[in-house]
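Q: Predict the bound structure with S-adenosylmethionine.
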Amino acid sequence: MSEAAAPGPVAEAVPAGAAYLAAEGFEAECEAALIEAGGRLGARHGRLLLSPDPPRANPWAANIWLAPQEIAIASIKHAAAKLKAIQRNWALFATGLHRRATLIEAALPPVKARPLRFPEPAPTAPLGGWTLLAPDRLLASARCSSPFPHGVVRFEEDRTGPPSRAYLKLWEALTLIGTHPAPGSLCLDLGAAPGGWSYALARLGARVVAVDKAALDPRVTAMAGLRHLQQSAFALDPAAFRAAEGQPADWLFSDVVCYPARLLALVRRWRVAGAARRFVCTIKFQGATDHAAVRDFAALPGARLMHLHHNKHELTFMLV
Ligand SMILES: C[S@@+](CC[C@H](N)C(=O)[O-])C[C@H]1O[C@@H](n2cnc3c(N)ncnc32)[C@H](O)[C@@H]1O
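A: Predicted complex:
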């Protein structure tokens, strides 16, 4: 194996090519994904994992600092001036030296991280990440994979409409994709009960076919444009669905509790049958993370895998 491909820790002095802010509680998964992608692990600052190698996709990173650079600083004022000279918006990820870091943060322009009102689009202004490595040295990346501070997407919640909080996962996925079902779109919602996702989709004006062996909340069942098929999602035949509807599903959503391999087989069947145009599915892990399944999902052309802020021990698979 060549030195470049060798996994494992490298000396702290190696400059960072990327920094991965692991999703909270998933540092081990984030590290494993980095190594698996051929990236080397450098220094670690809390859940910020540095790598000397160029950024690679990492589903377990809440945010990836795409171009981190070390900056020498002489004072708090100097640090703020250096950052401001690069761009306006910065989010501090404090990993130590909290008092000094907070003073620098206070000298920077305020970043208003207002909760989004779905389906409002994600912010477009560049947001950098920075941390203080030493009293006279900071690490800063003007470009990050997420436009949200530390990848945390917050919404103005709907506390009265949806029957479960699962709708937040759906809102987050659609916000990150940057598109959502249009009025009249045909949406399949597999594993729909009690109906949080179906509620959110129906509110967008979509036609929703909600599939679950369990009952939906009656308020959801009563929504316009919504049908409930009370059966297993795995028993629904893609070709028959397409023929019955006279079109493929514009979107296939799944929040079914099942093993990842079973979900992957379902996604493949719907793709092969040409019975769904876009996919947003939760991959749920029971016990240990199934890394092989993650690889298989990631190998589907155009696939995007992310640990959303609103995900638990899950990843969201998106194919749009
Ligand atoms: C996490 S809940 C879904 C929550 C839902 N997305 C919401 O927003 O309210 C998972 C659902 O998967 C359903 N489920 C499990 N196995 C299923 C199957 N074979 N077919 C359809 N639904 C299934 C369960 O009944 C359960 O309602």
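A: Residues 1-14 have pLDDT under 50 and may be disordered.
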